[in-house]
Amino acid sequence: MMSVDAPASPAPEAAPPTAGATPIRRRRRSLTPWLLIAPALVIIIAAMGYPIFWQLKTSFQKYGLKQQFNPDLPPDFVGFDNYVKVLTNPDFLAVLGRSILFCFLAAFITVILGFLLALLMKRVGKVARLILQIALLLAWAMPVAASMTVWVWLVDWRNGVLNYLLGRLGLDVENHNWLADPTTFFVIALIIVIWAAVPFVALSIYAGLSQISEEVLEAAQMDGATGWQRTRYITLPLIAPVLSIVLLLQIVWDLRVFTQIKFLQDAGGVANATDLLGTYIYKMGVGSADFGSAAAVSVIMLLLTVALSWYYVRSIMKEED
Amino acid sequence: MSATTSARRSSAGSASPVRKPKVSTGRRVSGWLWTLLAVAIALCWIFPVYWMVNSSFLSTLTLQRSTPTWLPFGGSLENFRNVFADGSFVKALSISLGVTLLTVAVAIVVAFLGALAISRFRFKGRRSFILAMLLIQMLPAEGMFIAQFKMMASWGLVNNILGLTLLYAAAVIPFTLWMLRGFVAGVPAELEEAAMVDGLSRTQAFLRITFPLLAPGLVASAVYAFLQAWNEFTIALVVMQDNDMRTLPLWLRGLVQASATRETDWGLVMAGSTMVAVPVIIFFMIVQSKMSSGLVGGAVKG
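C-alpha coordinates for the assembled complex are given below, as produced in the milestone run.
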Protein backbone atom coordinates (compact mmCIF):
# COMPACT_ATOMS: atom_id res chain seq x y z
CA MET A 1 0.00 0.00 0.00
CA MET A 2 1.10 3.52 -0.64
CA SER A 3 1.97 5.85 2.13
CA VAL A 4 3.05 9.43 1.83
CA ASP A 5 5.38 9.41 4.79
CA ALA A 6 7.77 7.04 3.03
CA PRO A 7 10.97 8.85 1.99
CA ALA A 8 10.43 10.34 -1.43
CA SER A 9 14.08 10.32 -2.55
CA PRO A 10 14.76 7.93 -5.43
CA ALA A 11 16.97 5.00 -4.48
CA PRO A 12 20.46 5.28 -5.97
CA GLU A 13 21.11 2.84 -8.81
CA ALA A 14 23.74 0.66 -7.17
CA ALA A 15 22.30 0.73 -3.67
CA PRO A 16 22.06 -2.66 -1.99
CA PRO A 17 18.48 -3.80 -1.35
CA THR A 18 18.22 -2.33 2.12
CA ALA A 19 14.99 -2.42 4.05
CA GLY A 20 12.61 0.37 3.08
CA ALA A 21 13.72 0.62 -0.53
CA THR A 22 11.17 -0.59 -3.07
CA PRO A 23 11.96 -4.13 -4.10
CA ILE A 24 12.80 -3.53 -7.71
CA ARG A 25 14.59 -6.43 -9.30
CA ARG A 26 16.14 -6.02 -12.68
CA ARG A 27 17.37 -2.59 -13.51
CA ARG A 28 19.26 -3.55 -16.61
CA ARG A 29 17.64 -3.38 -20.00
CA SER A 30 15.28 -6.31 -20.42
CA LEU A 31 12.40 -7.19 -22.65
CA THR A 32 10.35 -8.82 -19.89
CA PRO A 33 8.56 -5.70 -18.56
CA TRP A 34 7.63 -4.73 -22.10
CA LEU A 35 6.22 -8.16 -22.79
CA LEU A 36 4.21 -7.88 -19.57
CA ILE A 37 2.63 -4.54 -20.44
CA ALA A 38 2.14 -5.42 -24.12
CA PRO A 39 -1.36 -6.97 -23.76
CA ALA A 40 -2.62 -3.93 -21.82
CA LEU A 41 -1.15 -1.59 -24.42
CA VAL A 42 -2.63 -3.55 -27.34
CA ILE A 43 -6.15 -3.56 -25.88
CA ILE A 44 -6.09 0.09 -24.88
CA ILE A 45 -4.66 1.25 -28.19
CA ALA A 46 -7.22 -0.80 -30.12
CA ALA A 47 -10.24 0.29 -28.08
CA MET A 48 -9.29 3.87 -27.17
CA GLY A 49 -6.14 4.97 -28.96
CA TYR A 50 -7.50 4.32 -32.40
CA PRO A 51 -10.91 5.96 -31.79
CA ILE A 52 -9.23 9.03 -30.32
CA PHE A 53 -6.95 9.22 -33.35
CA TRP A 54 -9.96 8.83 -35.69
CA GLN A 55 -11.77 11.52 -33.75
CA LEU A 56 -8.89 13.98 -34.01
CA LYS A 57 -8.62 13.32 -37.74
CA THR A 58 -12.36 13.60 -38.30
CA SER A 59 -12.60 16.83 -36.33
CA PHE A 60 -10.46 18.47 -39.06
CA GLN A 61 -12.49 17.01 -41.92
CA LYS A 62 -15.79 17.59 -43.60
CA TYR A 63 -18.10 15.01 -45.13
CA GLY A 64 -20.12 17.06 -47.59
CA LEU A 65 -22.59 16.38 -50.36
CA LYS A 66 -19.77 15.37 -52.66
CA GLN A 67 -18.85 12.47 -50.36
CA GLN A 68 -22.46 11.45 -49.91
CA PHE A 69 -22.90 10.99 -53.65
CA ASN A 70 -19.57 9.27 -54.03
CA PRO A 71 -18.51 7.45 -50.85
CA ASP A 72 -15.11 6.62 -52.35
CA LEU A 73 -14.07 10.28 -52.32
CA PRO A 74 -11.86 11.19 -49.35
CA PRO A 75 -13.32 13.85 -47.03
CA ASP A 76 -12.07 17.42 -47.39
CA PHE A 77 -9.54 18.77 -44.95
CA VAL A 78 -11.08 21.89 -43.43
CA GLY A 79 -8.62 22.84 -40.68
CA PHE A 80 -10.27 24.29 -37.60
CA ASP A 81 -13.60 24.93 -39.38
CA ASN A 82 -15.47 22.36 -37.28
CA TYR A 83 -14.16 23.85 -34.05
CA VAL A 84 -15.06 27.37 -35.15
CA LYS A 85 -18.50 26.17 -36.19
CA VAL A 86 -19.07 24.41 -32.89
CA LEU A 87 -17.65 27.15 -30.68
CA THR A 88 -19.78 29.81 -32.36
CA ASN A 89 -22.92 27.70 -32.18
CA PRO A 90 -25.18 29.15 -29.46
CA ASP A 91 -26.71 25.69 -28.85
CA PHE A 92 -23.32 24.20 -28.03
CA LEU A 93 -22.27 27.16 -25.90
CA ALA A 94 -25.49 26.79 -23.90
CA VAL A 95 -24.81 23.07 -23.42
CA LEU A 96 -21.19 23.73 -22.44
CA GLY A 97 -22.16 26.43 -19.96
CA ARG A 98 -24.89 24.25 -18.48
CA SER A 99 -22.52 21.28 -18.18
CA ILE A 100 -19.84 23.33 -16.42
CA LEU A 101 -22.37 24.97 -14.10
CA PHE A 102 -23.96 21.60 -13.35
CA CYS A 103 -20.68 19.84 -12.65
CA PHE A 104 -19.32 22.56 -10.38
CA LEU A 105 -22.60 22.89 -8.47
CA ALA A 106 -22.88 19.12 -8.03
CA ALA A 107 -19.21 18.69 -7.10
CA PHE A 108 -19.12 21.50 -4.53
CA ILE A 109 -22.41 20.58 -2.88
CA THR A 110 -21.31 16.93 -2.79
CA VAL A 111 -17.99 17.72 -1.13
CA ILE A 112 -19.53 20.14 1.39
CA LEU A 113 -22.25 17.64 2.30
CA GLY A 114 -19.71 14.81 2.41
CA PHE A 115 -17.46 16.82 4.73
CA LEU A 116 -20.37 17.65 7.05
CA LEU A 117 -21.45 13.99 7.11
CA ALA A 118 -17.88 12.92 7.89
CA LEU A 119 -17.77 15.37 10.82
CA LEU A 120 -21.13 14.02 11.97
CA MET A 121 -19.80 10.44 11.81
CA LYS A 122 -16.87 11.50 14.01
CA ARG A 123 -19.22 13.09 16.50
CA VAL A 124 -21.87 10.41 17.05
CA GLY A 125 -21.56 7.07 18.85
CA LYS A 126 -20.66 3.74 17.34
CA VAL A 127 -24.20 2.55 16.59
CA ALA A 128 -25.37 5.74 14.90
CA ARG A 129 -22.16 5.84 12.91
CA LEU A 130 -22.60 2.26 11.73
CA ILE A 131 -26.21 2.95 10.69
CA LEU A 132 -25.11 5.99 8.70
CA GLN A 133 -22.22 4.12 7.09
CA ILE A 134 -24.40 1.20 6.03
CA ALA A 135 -26.98 3.56 4.54
CA LEU A 136 -24.29 5.39 2.60
CA LEU A 137 -22.74 2.14 1.38
CA LEU A 138 -26.09 0.83 0.17
CA ALA A 139 -26.76 4.01 -1.80
CA TRP A 140 -23.24 3.92 -3.19
CA ALA A 141 -23.56 0.27 -4.22
CA MET A 142 -26.73 0.79 -6.26
CA PRO A 143 -26.13 0.27 -9.99
CA VAL A 144 -26.87 3.57 -11.66
CA ALA A 145 -29.51 2.10 -13.99
CA ALA A 146 -31.40 0.49 -11.10
CA SER A 147 -31.24 3.66 -9.01
CA MET A 148 -32.50 5.69 -11.97
CA THR A 149 -35.61 3.55 -12.38
CA VAL A 150 -36.37 4.15 -8.69
CA TRP A 151 -35.83 7.88 -8.97
CA VAL A 152 -38.03 8.10 -12.05
CA TRP A 153 -40.69 6.25 -10.05
CA LEU A 154 -40.21 8.53 -7.02
CA VAL A 155 -40.73 11.69 -9.09
CA ASP A 156 -43.45 10.16 -11.30
CA TRP A 157 -46.19 12.75 -11.82
CA ARG A 158 -49.12 10.37 -11.28
CA ASN A 159 -48.39 8.46 -8.10
CA GLY A 160 -44.78 9.21 -7.19
CA VAL A 161 -43.83 9.68 -3.56
CA LEU A 162 -42.43 13.17 -4.15
CA ASN A 163 -45.74 14.67 -5.24
CA TYR A 164 -47.55 12.87 -2.43
CA LEU A 165 -45.21 14.27 0.22
CA LEU A 166 -45.30 17.79 -1.24
CA GLY A 167 -49.08 17.52 -1.35
CA ARG A 168 -49.13 16.58 2.33
CA LEU A 169 -47.09 19.72 3.02
CA GLY A 170 -49.94 21.68 1.50
CA LEU A 171 -48.51 22.39 -1.93
CA ASP A 172 -50.75 22.08 -4.93
CA VAL A 173 -48.65 19.71 -7.00
CA GLU A 174 -51.14 17.08 -7.99
CA ASN A 175 -50.11 15.55 -11.32
CA HIS A 176 -47.28 18.05 -11.69
CA ASN A 177 -44.54 16.70 -13.96
CA TRP A 178 -41.22 18.02 -12.59
CA LEU A 179 -39.28 16.64 -15.54
CA ALA A 180 -41.21 18.70 -18.09
CA ASP A 181 -39.52 21.96 -17.07
CA PRO A 182 -35.73 22.31 -17.60
CA THR A 183 -35.14 24.10 -14.29
CA THR A 184 -36.86 21.53 -12.09
CA PHE A 185 -35.43 18.80 -14.33
CA PHE A 186 -31.92 19.91 -13.40
CA VAL A 187 -32.79 20.32 -9.73
CA ILE A 188 -33.91 16.69 -9.68
CA ALA A 189 -30.85 15.57 -11.69
CA LEU A 190 -28.65 17.47 -9.23
CA ILE A 191 -30.28 15.78 -6.24
CA ILE A 192 -29.84 12.34 -7.83
CA VAL A 193 -26.20 12.92 -8.77
CA ILE A 194 -25.39 14.30 -5.31
CA TRP A 195 -27.24 11.45 -3.59
CA ALA A 196 -25.15 8.94 -5.49
CA ALA A 197 -21.82 10.77 -5.06
CA VAL A 198 -21.93 11.80 -1.39
CA PRO A 199 -21.23 8.30 0.04
CA PHE A 200 -17.82 7.99 -1.64
CA VAL A 201 -16.87 11.52 -0.59
CA ALA A 202 -18.16 11.23 2.98
CA LEU A 203 -16.46 7.89 3.62
CA SER A 204 -13.17 9.03 2.06
CA ILE A 205 -13.13 12.21 4.14
CA TYR A 206 -14.10 10.22 7.22
CA ALA A 207 -11.14 7.90 6.60
CA GLY A 208 -8.95 11.00 6.39
CA LEU A 209 -10.42 12.45 9.59
CA SER A 210 -9.65 9.23 11.44
CA GLN A 211 -5.96 9.83 10.72
CA ILE A 212 -5.85 13.14 12.58
CA SER A 213 -4.34 12.50 15.98
CA GLU A 214 -6.68 13.11 18.90
CA GLU A 215 -3.86 14.70 20.88
CA VAL A 216 -3.59 17.68 18.56
CA LEU A 217 -7.30 18.37 18.89
CA GLU A 218 -7.21 17.89 22.66
CA ALA A 219 -4.23 20.19 22.99
CA ALA A 220 -6.13 22.86 21.08
CA GLN A 221 -9.13 22.33 23.32
CA MET A 222 -6.91 22.78 26.39
CA ASP A 223 -5.70 26.04 24.90
CA GLY A 224 -9.31 27.15 24.69
CA ALA A 225 -10.11 26.64 21.00
CA THR A 226 -13.84 26.31 20.38
CA GLY A 227 -15.32 23.49 18.32
CA TRP A 228 -15.59 25.75 15.29
CA GLN A 229 -12.02 26.98 15.71
CA ARG A 230 -10.70 23.43 15.97
CA THR A 231 -12.54 22.45 12.79
CA ARG A 232 -11.43 25.56 10.92
CA TYR A 233 -7.79 25.79 11.99
CA ILE A 234 -6.80 22.17 12.66
CA THR A 235 -9.10 19.67 10.97
CA LEU A 236 -9.62 21.59 7.72
CA PRO A 237 -5.92 22.23 6.89
CA LEU A 238 -5.03 18.63 7.77
CA ILE A 239 -7.83 17.24 5.63
CA ALA A 240 -7.23 19.64 2.71
CA PRO A 241 -5.34 17.12 0.50
CA VAL A 242 -8.23 14.64 0.67
CA LEU A 243 -10.78 17.40 0.09
CA SER A 244 -8.99 18.67 -2.99
CA ILE A 245 -8.66 15.19 -4.49
CA VAL A 246 -12.28 14.18 -3.97
CA LEU A 247 -13.43 17.58 -5.24
CA LEU A 248 -11.36 17.13 -8.38
CA LEU A 249 -12.62 13.60 -8.97
CA GLN A 250 -16.20 14.82 -8.52
CA ILE A 251 -15.73 17.66 -11.00
CA VAL A 252 -14.31 15.27 -13.61
CA TRP A 253 -17.02 12.68 -12.99
CA ASP A 254 -19.88 15.18 -12.92
CA LEU A 255 -18.74 16.74 -16.19
CA ARG A 256 -19.57 13.49 -17.94
CA VAL A 257 -22.87 12.72 -16.26
CA PHE A 258 -24.83 10.86 -18.91
CA THR A 259 -26.88 7.94 -17.62
CA GLN A 260 -28.89 10.03 -15.17
CA ILE A 261 -29.72 12.68 -17.76
CA LYS A 262 -30.60 10.05 -20.37
CA PHE A 263 -33.02 8.24 -18.05
CA LEU A 264 -34.69 11.48 -16.96
CA GLN A 265 -34.99 12.66 -20.57
CA ASP A 266 -36.52 9.33 -21.58
CA ALA A 267 -39.02 9.62 -18.75
CA GLY A 268 -39.76 13.31 -19.05
CA GLY A 269 -40.08 14.06 -22.72
CA VAL A 270 -38.30 17.42 -22.97
CA ALA A 271 -35.06 16.85 -24.77
CA ASN A 272 -32.98 19.71 -26.18
CA ALA A 273 -33.22 22.16 -23.30
CA THR A 274 -31.99 19.50 -20.87
CA ASP A 275 -28.91 18.32 -22.77
CA LEU A 276 -25.50 18.23 -21.14
CA LEU A 277 -22.26 17.48 -23.02
CA GLY A 278 -22.73 13.70 -23.02
CA THR A 279 -26.29 13.61 -24.34
CA TYR A 280 -25.44 16.42 -26.79
CA ILE A 281 -22.61 14.42 -28.38
CA TYR A 282 -24.78 11.31 -28.38
CA LYS A 283 -27.52 13.07 -30.33
CA MET A 284 -25.06 14.67 -32.73
CA GLY A 285 -23.30 11.42 -33.49
CA VAL A 286 -26.26 9.06 -33.54
CA GLY A 287 -29.00 11.37 -34.68
CA SER A 288 -27.59 13.83 -37.18
CA ALA A 289 -24.49 12.04 -38.56
CA ASP A 290 -22.52 15.31 -38.49
CA PHE A 291 -19.37 13.45 -37.51
CA GLY A 292 -17.00 16.38 -37.99
CA SER A 293 -18.80 18.49 -35.40
CA ALA A 294 -19.47 15.54 -33.08
CA ALA A 295 -15.76 14.72 -33.20
CA ALA A 296 -14.83 18.34 -32.47
CA VAL A 297 -17.14 18.42 -29.42
CA SER A 298 -15.71 15.09 -28.23
CA VAL A 299 -12.16 16.38 -28.56
CA ILE A 300 -13.11 19.50 -26.59
CA MET A 301 -14.61 17.30 -23.86
CA LEU A 302 -11.50 15.10 -23.70
CA LEU A 303 -9.20 18.13 -23.52
CA LEU A 304 -11.33 19.60 -20.74
CA THR A 305 -11.09 16.31 -18.82
CA VAL A 306 -7.33 16.05 -19.25
CA ALA A 307 -6.86 19.64 -18.11
CA LEU A 308 -9.02 19.05 -15.04
CA SER A 309 -7.39 15.70 -14.21
CA TRP A 310 -3.84 16.94 -14.53
CA TYR A 311 -3.47 17.97 -10.91
CA TYR A 312 -4.87 14.64 -9.67
CA VAL A 313 -2.59 12.59 -11.90
CA ARG A 314 0.42 14.71 -10.96
CA SER A 315 -0.23 14.35 -7.23
CA ILE A 316 -0.49 10.56 -7.55
CA MET A 317 2.66 10.44 -9.68
CA LYS A 318 4.52 12.39 -7.01
CA GLU A 319 3.74 9.68 -4.48
CA GLU A 320 4.90 7.12 -7.00
CA ASP A 321 8.38 8.64 -7.36
CA MET B 1 -24.44 26.36 16.25
CA SER B 2 -25.15 24.29 19.29
CA ALA B 3 -21.92 22.33 18.76
CA THR B 4 -19.92 25.44 19.47
CA THR B 5 -21.72 26.32 22.68
CA SER B 6 -21.61 22.81 24.07
CA ALA B 7 -17.94 22.48 23.21
CA ARG B 8 -17.19 25.78 24.93
CA ARG B 9 -19.10 24.66 27.98
CA SER B 10 -17.19 21.40 28.19
CA SER B 11 -13.86 23.09 27.64
CA ALA B 12 -14.67 25.44 30.50
CA GLY B 13 -15.46 22.34 32.54
CA SER B 14 -12.10 20.76 31.80
CA ALA B 15 -10.37 23.77 33.34
CA SER B 16 -11.78 22.82 36.74
CA PRO B 17 -9.52 20.86 39.12
CA VAL B 18 -11.57 17.65 38.64
CA ARG B 19 -9.46 15.51 36.32
CA LYS B 20 -12.29 13.67 34.61
CA PRO B 21 -14.87 16.31 33.69
CA LYS B 22 -18.47 15.20 34.15
CA VAL B 23 -20.53 15.18 30.96
CA SER B 24 -22.90 18.09 31.25
CA THR B 25 -26.62 17.73 30.57
CA GLY B 26 -26.33 20.16 27.67
CA ARG B 27 -23.72 18.02 26.04
CA ARG B 28 -25.76 14.86 26.53
CA VAL B 29 -28.82 16.47 24.96
CA SER B 30 -26.82 17.75 21.99
CA GLY B 31 -25.27 14.29 21.68
CA TRP B 32 -28.76 12.83 21.29
CA LEU B 33 -29.63 15.51 18.74
CA TRP B 34 -26.59 14.60 16.65
CA THR B 35 -27.47 10.90 16.85
CA LEU B 36 -31.02 11.69 15.78
CA LEU B 37 -29.71 13.76 12.87
CA ALA B 38 -27.38 10.94 11.81
CA VAL B 39 -30.23 8.42 11.81
CA ALA B 40 -32.51 10.81 9.92
CA ILE B 41 -29.87 11.34 7.23
CA ALA B 42 -29.28 7.58 7.05
CA LEU B 43 -33.00 7.09 6.41
CA CYS B 44 -32.98 9.71 3.64
CA TRP B 45 -30.04 8.07 1.91
CA ILE B 46 -31.38 4.57 2.16
CA PHE B 47 -34.91 5.50 1.15
CA PRO B 48 -34.58 5.03 -2.63
CA VAL B 49 -33.04 1.59 -2.07
CA TYR B 50 -35.79 0.69 0.39
CA TRP B 51 -38.45 2.01 -1.96
CA MET B 52 -37.18 -0.20 -4.77
CA VAL B 53 -37.41 -3.34 -2.64
CA ASN B 54 -40.71 -2.31 -1.07
CA SER B 55 -42.40 -1.57 -4.39
CA SER B 56 -41.12 -4.80 -5.89
CA PHE B 57 -43.43 -6.78 -3.56
CA LEU B 58 -46.57 -4.70 -4.15
CA SER B 59 -49.18 -5.25 -6.84
CA THR B 60 -49.68 -2.75 -9.62
CA LEU B 61 -53.09 -1.88 -8.21
CA THR B 62 -51.63 -1.06 -4.80
CA LEU B 63 -48.89 1.06 -6.38
CA GLN B 64 -51.45 3.08 -8.36
CA ARG B 65 -53.27 4.25 -5.23
CA SER B 66 -52.94 7.94 -4.51
CA THR B 67 -51.50 7.19 -1.06
CA PRO B 68 -48.17 5.32 -1.14
CA THR B 69 -47.96 1.99 0.68
CA TRP B 70 -44.98 2.37 2.99
CA LEU B 71 -44.56 -1.25 4.07
CA PRO B 72 -44.73 -4.34 1.87
CA PHE B 73 -47.48 -6.03 3.96
CA GLY B 74 -49.73 -8.17 1.83
CA GLY B 75 -47.12 -8.20 -0.90
CA SER B 76 -46.28 -11.12 -3.12
CA LEU B 77 -43.60 -12.42 -5.43
CA GLU B 78 -45.92 -11.89 -8.40
CA ASN B 79 -43.71 -9.12 -9.84
CA PHE B 80 -40.64 -11.31 -9.73
CA ARG B 81 -42.53 -14.04 -11.56
CA ASN B 82 -43.55 -11.47 -14.19
CA VAL B 83 -39.95 -10.42 -14.71
CA PHE B 84 -39.24 -13.89 -16.05
CA ALA B 85 -42.48 -14.12 -18.03
CA ASP B 86 -41.50 -12.75 -21.45
CA GLY B 87 -37.92 -14.02 -21.60
CA SER B 88 -36.41 -10.56 -22.23
CA PHE B 89 -34.93 -10.46 -18.74
CA VAL B 90 -33.27 -13.85 -19.12
CA LYS B 91 -31.92 -12.81 -22.51
CA ALA B 92 -30.44 -9.58 -21.11
CA LEU B 93 -29.13 -11.44 -18.09
CA SER B 94 -27.25 -13.91 -20.27
CA ILE B 95 -25.75 -11.08 -22.38
CA SER B 96 -24.76 -9.15 -19.25
CA LEU B 97 -23.23 -12.22 -17.65
CA GLY B 98 -21.34 -13.10 -20.83
CA VAL B 99 -19.88 -9.63 -21.31
CA THR B 100 -19.13 -9.17 -17.61
CA LEU B 101 -17.38 -12.50 -17.09
CA LEU B 102 -15.35 -12.12 -20.28
CA THR B 103 -14.36 -8.60 -19.26
CA VAL B 104 -13.31 -9.74 -15.79
CA ALA B 105 -11.24 -12.61 -17.20
CA VAL B 106 -9.46 -10.47 -19.78
CA ALA B 107 -8.97 -7.47 -17.50
CA ILE B 108 -7.59 -9.45 -14.57
CA VAL B 109 -5.02 -11.38 -16.60
CA VAL B 110 -3.88 -8.36 -18.60
CA ALA B 111 -3.86 -5.96 -15.64
CA PHE B 112 -2.02 -8.45 -13.47
CA LEU B 113 0.80 -8.78 -16.01
CA GLY B 114 1.00 -5.00 -16.28
CA ALA B 115 1.02 -4.62 -12.50
CA LEU B 116 3.92 -7.06 -12.27
CA ALA B 117 5.84 -5.02 -14.82
CA ILE B 118 5.48 -1.68 -13.06
CA SER B 119 5.99 -2.92 -9.51
CA ARG B 120 8.77 -5.48 -10.06
CA PHE B 121 10.78 -3.87 -12.86
CA ARG B 122 12.25 -0.48 -13.42
CA PHE B 123 12.40 0.13 -17.15
CA LYS B 124 12.54 2.94 -19.63
CA GLY B 125 9.04 4.22 -20.28
CA ARG B 126 7.69 2.96 -16.95
CA ARG B 127 6.85 6.47 -15.79
CA SER B 128 5.13 7.37 -19.05
CA PHE B 129 3.17 4.13 -18.91
CA ILE B 130 1.90 4.84 -15.39
CA LEU B 131 1.07 8.42 -16.36
CA ALA B 132 -0.86 7.17 -19.39
CA MET B 133 -2.82 4.66 -17.29
CA LEU B 134 -3.78 7.31 -14.76
CA LEU B 135 -4.89 9.75 -17.45
CA ILE B 136 -6.80 7.17 -19.48
CA GLN B 137 -8.66 6.11 -16.36
CA MET B 138 -10.10 9.63 -16.19
CA LEU B 139 -11.25 9.86 -19.82
CA PRO B 140 -15.05 9.93 -20.18
CA ALA B 141 -16.69 7.32 -22.41
CA GLU B 142 -18.93 10.14 -23.65
CA GLY B 143 -15.91 11.79 -25.26
CA MET B 144 -15.12 8.70 -27.31
CA PHE B 145 -18.25 6.69 -27.90
CA ILE B 146 -19.14 8.01 -31.33
CA ALA B 147 -15.65 7.12 -32.60
CA GLN B 148 -15.80 3.76 -30.83
CA PHE B 149 -19.12 3.06 -32.49
CA LYS B 150 -17.72 3.92 -35.93
CA MET B 151 -14.77 1.63 -35.27
CA MET B 152 -16.97 -1.25 -34.07
CA ALA B 153 -19.19 -0.79 -37.11
CA SER B 154 -16.24 -0.99 -39.50
CA TRP B 155 -14.99 -4.15 -37.76
CA GLY B 156 -18.46 -5.71 -37.81
CA LEU B 157 -18.55 -5.82 -34.01
CA VAL B 158 -21.74 -3.84 -33.37
CA ASN B 159 -24.26 -5.90 -31.37
CA ASN B 160 -21.48 -8.29 -30.56
CA ILE B 161 -20.48 -9.52 -27.11
CA LEU B 162 -16.81 -9.65 -28.04
CA GLY B 163 -16.87 -6.07 -29.32
CA LEU B 164 -18.43 -4.78 -26.12
CA THR B 165 -15.95 -6.84 -24.10
CA LEU B 166 -13.04 -5.20 -25.92
CA LEU B 167 -14.34 -1.72 -25.07
CA TYR B 168 -15.10 -2.67 -21.45
CA ALA B 169 -11.73 -4.34 -20.94
CA ALA B 170 -9.95 -1.22 -22.18
CA ALA B 171 -12.06 0.91 -19.85
CA VAL B 172 -11.37 -1.12 -16.68
CA ILE B 173 -7.77 -2.22 -17.27
CA PRO B 174 -6.10 1.08 -16.22
CA PHE B 175 -7.68 1.20 -12.77
CA THR B 176 -7.51 -2.58 -12.23
CA LEU B 177 -3.82 -2.43 -13.08
CA TRP B 178 -3.30 0.46 -10.67
CA MET B 179 -5.19 -1.35 -7.90
CA LEU B 180 -3.22 -4.59 -8.42
CA ARG B 181 0.06 -2.69 -8.50
CA GLY B 182 -0.57 -1.74 -4.87
CA PHE B 183 -1.09 -5.37 -3.92
CA VAL B 184 1.93 -6.67 -5.85
CA ALA B 185 4.15 -3.98 -4.34
CA GLY B 186 2.86 -5.07 -0.91
CA VAL B 187 4.46 -8.51 -1.31
CA PRO B 188 8.21 -8.02 -0.84
CA ALA B 189 10.34 -9.51 -3.61
CA GLU B 190 12.72 -10.72 -0.88
CA LEU B 191 10.17 -13.39 0.03
CA GLU B 192 10.40 -14.81 -3.45
CA GLU B 193 14.17 -14.50 -3.48
CA ALA B 194 14.41 -16.37 -0.19
CA ALA B 195 12.36 -19.19 -1.69
CA MET B 196 14.70 -19.26 -4.68
CA VAL B 197 17.69 -19.51 -2.38
CA ASP B 198 15.94 -22.53 -0.89
CA GLY B 199 15.94 -24.15 -4.30
CA LEU B 200 12.70 -23.14 -6.05
CA SER B 201 12.76 -21.84 -9.61
CA ARG B 202 11.55 -18.30 -10.24
CA THR B 203 8.22 -19.57 -11.56
CA GLN B 204 7.77 -21.98 -8.66
CA ALA B 205 8.64 -19.27 -6.16
CA PHE B 206 6.12 -16.96 -7.75
CA LEU B 207 3.34 -19.55 -7.90
CA ARG B 208 3.86 -20.90 -4.38
CA ILE B 209 4.83 -17.78 -2.46
CA THR B 210 3.70 -14.58 -4.14
CA PHE B 211 0.52 -15.73 -5.85
CA PRO B 212 -1.32 -16.95 -2.72
CA LEU B 213 -0.48 -13.66 -1.00
CA LEU B 214 -1.98 -11.80 -3.94
CA ALA B 215 -5.28 -13.68 -3.90
CA PRO B 216 -7.21 -11.04 -1.91
CA GLY B 217 -5.99 -8.33 -4.27
CA LEU B 218 -6.99 -10.36 -7.30
CA VAL B 219 -10.47 -10.96 -5.84
CA ALA B 220 -10.92 -7.27 -5.07
CA SER B 221 -9.82 -6.23 -8.57
CA ALA B 222 -12.02 -8.86 -10.18
CA VAL B 223 -15.02 -7.59 -8.25
CA TYR B 224 -14.18 -4.03 -9.30
CA ALA B 225 -14.09 -5.08 -12.97
CA PHE B 226 -17.31 -7.05 -12.48
CA LEU B 227 -19.15 -4.04 -11.03
CA GLN B 228 -17.96 -1.73 -13.79
CA ALA B 229 -19.01 -4.05 -16.60
CA TRP B 230 -22.29 -5.08 -14.95
CA ASN B 231 -23.38 -1.48 -14.32
CA GLU B 232 -22.12 0.13 -17.52
CA PHE B 233 -24.80 1.92 -19.51
CA THR B 234 -23.26 4.51 -21.84
CA ILE B 235 -21.11 2.37 -24.13
CA ALA B 236 -23.69 -0.42 -24.21
CA LEU B 237 -26.34 2.09 -25.33
CA VAL B 238 -24.24 3.03 -28.33
CA VAL B 239 -22.89 -0.38 -29.30
CA MET B 240 -25.75 -2.78 -28.47
CA GLN B 241 -28.58 -1.35 -30.53
CA ASP B 242 -30.38 -4.58 -31.31
CA ASN B 243 -33.19 -5.31 -28.82
CA ASP B 244 -32.04 -8.91 -28.59
CA MET B 245 -28.54 -7.84 -27.59
CA ARG B 246 -29.46 -5.55 -24.70
CA THR B 247 -27.53 -5.75 -21.42
CA LEU B 248 -29.44 -5.48 -18.15
CA PRO B 249 -29.05 -1.68 -17.75
CA LEU B 250 -30.44 -1.23 -21.27
CA TRP B 251 -33.28 -3.62 -20.46
CA LEU B 252 -34.13 -1.52 -17.39
CA ARG B 253 -34.09 1.62 -19.50
CA GLY B 254 -36.53 0.00 -21.92
CA LEU B 255 -38.95 -0.50 -19.03
CA VAL B 256 -39.09 3.13 -17.89
CA GLN B 257 -38.72 4.76 -21.29
CA ALA B 258 -41.66 7.02 -22.10
CA SER B 259 -43.10 6.52 -18.62
CA ALA B 260 -44.40 10.11 -18.77
CA THR B 261 -46.97 9.22 -21.40
CA ARG B 262 -47.41 5.51 -20.97
CA GLU B 263 -48.66 3.57 -17.96
CA THR B 264 -45.68 1.85 -16.45
CA ASP B 265 -45.89 -1.36 -14.45
CA TRP B 266 -43.79 -0.03 -11.57
CA GLY B 267 -43.98 -3.26 -9.57
CA LEU B 268 -42.36 -5.12 -12.44
CA VAL B 269 -39.74 -2.41 -12.97
CA MET B 270 -38.83 -2.40 -9.28
CA ALA B 271 -38.61 -6.19 -9.17
CA GLY B 272 -36.30 -6.08 -12.19
CA SER B 273 -34.17 -3.34 -10.64
CA THR B 274 -33.94 -5.29 -7.39
CA MET B 275 -32.67 -8.33 -9.24
CA VAL B 276 -30.07 -6.26 -11.08
CA ALA B 277 -28.98 -4.48 -7.90
CA VAL B 278 -28.80 -7.23 -5.29
CA PRO B 279 -25.76 -9.13 -6.59
CA VAL B 280 -23.98 -5.82 -7.08
CA ILE B 281 -24.71 -4.63 -3.55
CA ILE B 282 -23.36 -7.87 -2.08
CA PHE B 283 -20.16 -7.76 -4.16
CA PHE B 284 -19.72 -4.09 -3.49
CA MET B 285 -19.77 -4.53 0.26
CA ILE B 286 -16.89 -7.01 -0.09
CA VAL B 287 -14.44 -4.73 -1.87
CA GLN B 288 -15.53 -1.19 -1.08
CA SER B 289 -12.69 -0.29 1.26
CA LYS B 290 -9.99 -1.55 -1.10
CA MET B 291 -11.43 0.27 -4.08
CA SER B 292 -11.70 3.67 -2.45
CA SER B 293 -8.17 3.54 -1.06
CA GLY B 294 -6.95 3.00 -4.62
CA LEU B 295 -8.88 6.01 -5.88
CA VAL B 296 -7.87 8.54 -3.27
CA GLY B 297 -4.35 7.20 -3.23
CA GLY B 298 -2.14 8.09 -0.31
CA ALA B 299 -4.12 11.21 0.49
CA VAL B 300 -6.37 9.40 2.94
CA LYS B 301 -3.47 7.72 4.63
CA GLY B 302 -1.63 11.03 5.08
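The CA atoms of residues 154 and 160 of chain A lie 5 Å apart. The longest strand of chain A covers residues 61-62. Further analysis is deferred to the final report.
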